[in-house]
Amino acid sequence: METLIANDSKVIPGTWVGKDSFLSTNLIESYSPIDNSLLGAVSTTTREQYDTVITEAYKAFKEWRKIPAPKRGAFVRAFADRVREKKEELAKLITLEMGKSIQEALGEVQEIIDICDFAVGLSRQLYGLTIQSERPNHKMLETWHPLGIVGIISAFNFPMAVWSWNSTIAWVCGNVTVWKPSEKVPLCAIELQKIVSQVLDEFNYPQAISSVINGDYRVGEFLSHDHRVALVSATGSTRMGKEVAKAVSERLGRYLLELGGNNAIIVTPSADLKLLIPAVVFGAVGTAGQRCTSTRRLIIHNNVYEKVLHAIKNAYNQLKIGNPLDEKNHLGPLIDKTAVDNYLKAIEKAVSNGGRIIHHGGVLEGEEYASGLYVKPCIIEVTPENPMVQVETFAPILYVMRYERIEEAIEIHNNVPQGLSSSIMTLNMREAEYFLSSEGSDCGIANVNIGTSGAEIGGAFGGEKETGGGRESGSDAWKNYMRRQTTTINYGTDLPLAQGIKFTIE
């Protein structure tokens, strides 16, 4: 196979080299969680190669920022057109390397296309404000300028889409990007970078506008500690995010964090089961529970508790688990053995702390599941005091619990360290509005009569507390990738000072 590596001074940025020409002898091997087959290997980035990438990226930035934003948008549009042409091919690669169902993989590629559309429109806005001055014959303006180099650290579960949320917006804002993908899914990053590289070449733009650096956490540390990287956008675990925040803060840089979620749905007596069941099931088992927005907790009113559980168990019994390339299967494997171990330990701890298994989990056996990474979705009845309720386990485990009053449900809902996505299923307007009020959900995303999982690119995506506080994708999230500048213009013949200060010289 061939791969893009971070380049040293002997290699032109954007050069593709074959497996016999690796500059680094350290390789990352990518195995498919579907059957443990070896998909390929990529070279890791040395410090010397990284420094060259950053040097070239800054050179590219000085050229890129001069190009009018609408023309930068035209580049993004051309990239989106290429992605459209390769949608099925890219989705299959996501499924092969990450293991999510092919339908979800197609949806992930569609997210890339959608955010490109958003970014293209944004390229003709990037608006500032006009501000009324207290001084006569003065005008105040707010303008926005690109930051420079944006470092992107992404997780395995969305190996393409999350990068696109950051990169396409960063590009139209006038920045260049350096992407450190998860070492679990390096081939997805390489395939996207190939497309970007081709489009950059067609437009005769510098290749270093977009770069990929492969490696483990140490390569991520290069970005976090580097004062030349203006913004580090990191998606992953809360533990990782804290390390990034510490390193970037020490150099007074900017960071944008999208971290763990521990998402809940509150089920009220008036909940519509036709809406509730697919929302809960997809939220809990979609991507085999490996989404930051996966539904981890179900808080059900006493009056409908048994009815809701019966319906959910019936739906779980219909789930098909197997090769995610087969559209008939609802979920595929977990990403690796560590994920399986964490799944099993979480079930054991939840039960040892008083939990009762409602729908049994476990690792599936048989020829189709020979990789050992296929697990059964598990439902566990717990009390809110069970310590595992506080933990995000990236696996299809759903904790169910009871409540009596809506105020109690909100308290249970908010009493976790994470604050990403939330939902209430109700036909009661008062309950819905209470959930959306300042007394209600403390999450960055609050939904009514839809699940916690899945978000459109038009709205800002992100959460509070240990989720990190970052916002990506739509709305005004573009401001993360730019610096604000306030300008005052005096077009008069006098020089009055603000606040009425008198300063006279002869």
Automatic annotation (TrEMBL):
The keyword Oxidoreductase applies. It holds the Pfam family Aldedh. The active site is at 258. It comes from the Bacteria. GO terms for molecular function: aldehyde dehydrogenase (NAD+) activity. PROSITE patterns: ALDEHYDE_DEHYDR_GLU. InterPro entries: Ald_DH/histidinol_DH, Ald_DH_C, Ald_DH_CS_GLU, Ald_DH_N, Aldehyde_DH_dom, ALDH7A1-like. It is an enzyme of class 1 (oxidoreductase). Homotetramer. Belongs to the aldehyde dehydrogenase family. This is aldehyde dehydrogenase (NAD(+)). It comes from Thermaurantimonas aggregans. The gene is pcd.
